[in-house]
Structure formats: structure tokens, C-alpha cells
Design goal:
Helix content is 26%, strand content 41%. The longest helix has 17 residues.
Length: 148
């Protein structure tokens, strides 16, 4: 089931729809893919009160931020898949929290660093309009190509 598209616009529209509407976790987060191209994804996550981890200071939960980083990096990694049956799995994720994320929307920009035969590495920057960069992440993903 090789992935073939009539145009790049169609390709990105189909991938965007699949990621936003068919992945339950992304629906819970309210992911909106703002930009997607080969090796890159920019995601918008609207703020929800459910995301608060530090209720005294009104800051996002670090685990939610890490999940968003993982998903954004995975989306960037998925842009290089060539068959719908290829498998992509997180094998490592590192997060550096730089500033507390306040009660506003969060953005994540993920870019691939290295694409090997079996391992993909991606960097992610998570930021807010009023706070700037709140976290930086690096993910490693295993790539299992479908073989008939």
C-alpha cells in the first residue's frame, strides 16, 4: 500500500486530516497542524484547564508538554514514510523545561535531524506567544519499513 498522491498539497492535506482526526490522543489535545512538509511539522495546541499541573501558579503539567513534544516529533518523522504500513515508534524522548507554560495556547515546531535506515531523530521547540520557548525536546524513533 504505497503512498501515492496527485500533488504535494493533497499529500499534506490527507496526512493532516489523518493525524488530527484519526488519532485519539491528538483529538484529546486538540492538535491543529499549522504547517507540515517533509521533515517538519508545526502544531498548535489550544489551552485547556485540564492541562494544568501546578494549580497554585496556573502552569501546564510537564507530562502534557512532553506528550505534545513526542507527538509533534512523530508527526515530523511521519512525513518521510513511503508506505501506509510502515511503523514508527518512539524509542527515546528527552525534554528540557526552560520556563513554566502559562494558561495560553502552546505551539510545537519539530524538525528532523537525521533519518537513518532504522532510526529517525528529531528536535522540538515548544513555545507560547507571551513566554517564548518553554521547553526543548529531542526524540528518537524506530522505523520499521513494511516488507511484502
Amino acid at each position: 500500500m504505497s503512498l501515492t498522491y496527485e500533488s504535494d498539497e493533497q499529500k499534506w492535506a490527507i496526512i493532516k486530516m489523518a493525524i488530527e482526526q484519526n488519532m485519539p490522543a491528538n483529538k484529546i489535545f486538540g492538535f491543529e497542524i499549522m504547517e507540515i512538509r517533509e521533515g517538519f511539522a508545526k502544531v498548535h495546541v489550544p489551552f485547556k484547564e485540564d492541562f494544568i499541573g501546578d494549580f497554585i501558579h496556573g502552569l501546564w503539567h510537564g507530562g502534557i508538554i512532553a506528550s505534545i513534544a513526542d507527538s509533534a516529533a512523530g508527526i515530523a518523522a511521519s512525513t518521510i514514510l513511503t508506505d501506509a504500513r510502515d511503523k514508527l515508534n518512539t524509542i527515546d524522548l528527552r525534554i528540557d523545561y526552560l520556563n513554566g507554560a502559562v494558561k495560553e495556547d502552546l505551539y510545537a515546531e519539530a524538525e528532523l535531524l537525521k533519518v537513518g535506515k532504522r532510526i529517525i531523530k528529531a528536535d522540538v521547540k515548544l513555545y507560547q506567544k507571551s513566554k517564548g520557548t518553554v521547553a526543548l525536546g529531542r526524540g528518537a524513533f524506530s522505523l520499521l519499513k513494511f516488507e511484502e
